[in-house]
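Hi R.,

Here's the chain you asked about this morning:
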Amino acid sequence: MGCHQRLNKSFKNAPVLPMGPGCDYVLFSDCHRGNGTHNDNFLLNEHLYLAALRHYYQSGFTYIELGDGDELWENRKMDSIKEVHSDVFELLSRFYKENRLYMIYGNHDIVKKHPSFSRKKCASYFCTSHQCTEPLFPGITFYSGIVLRDEHFGQSLYLTHGHQASLLNSTLWPINCFLVRYVWKPLEQIGILDPTSAAKNYTTKQRSENRLVSWARLNNRTLVTGHTHRPMMSTSESPYVNTGSCVHPHCVTCIEVREQTLTLVKWYMSARQSGSLYVEREDLAWQNQTDYEKIL
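And here is the predicted structure, written out as tokens:
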């Protein structure tokens, strides 16, 4: 099965959510929440992610995670990840209780596609602020893809993780998981990066993006993914969008979908003249309804 067939399969029977006035979404990907050790790449940006998450929760957004939310290749235990990042899961659970949370699985958390895993590992967590076990995502389904559709304009956004562009990260993922856990994880500590990773190897990144762009062009669809960690906004020549990730040095990126506009956003730490620090939001790129019409 090739890349295009894998992407087609990801959207077969995918849930369709409304897009338009009153439907505000924020799309995050590649948080890679870890277990708090030196391999936990999310740890350094957790404060930025929490600040952004609180903003979107208070502003009424629906949260959609496009995969690799939790680092389950390097780490075996989901419980340890939930314990270390309990503040994050407490806030995500609020989104879920209000029917404002949807999750897509990626290659690094592909085990979430199994209902038995989500029932056992995602139904509850230990809330450190209340010092008791609380519901997390009871009954949740992790999807391979989600479609946002504006029925009025007849336009759609196709959301998935993007690992389908790589045979090693999709069909052969158990092999790559073994390599990451037992080979590349220890080598990363001495500065040797995983050459099979689309996030860490430029050639692999470019190859994956070319395949994703090819599918979007061939099917005349706007495709939104993560996986490569490189934030990107679509153009009239390339109907492909990438959220970036939450493990960039010194910032996290995401995509806001409000009415007919997509906005690529960066959250980062800045300083006032007084020397005090604060988290700032910056628009990096945006695309409005006119741009959609050029693409679709």
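One quick note: The helical segments are 3-10, 46-58, 78-84, 86-97, 115-121, 173-188, 202-219, 289-295.

Cheers,
M.
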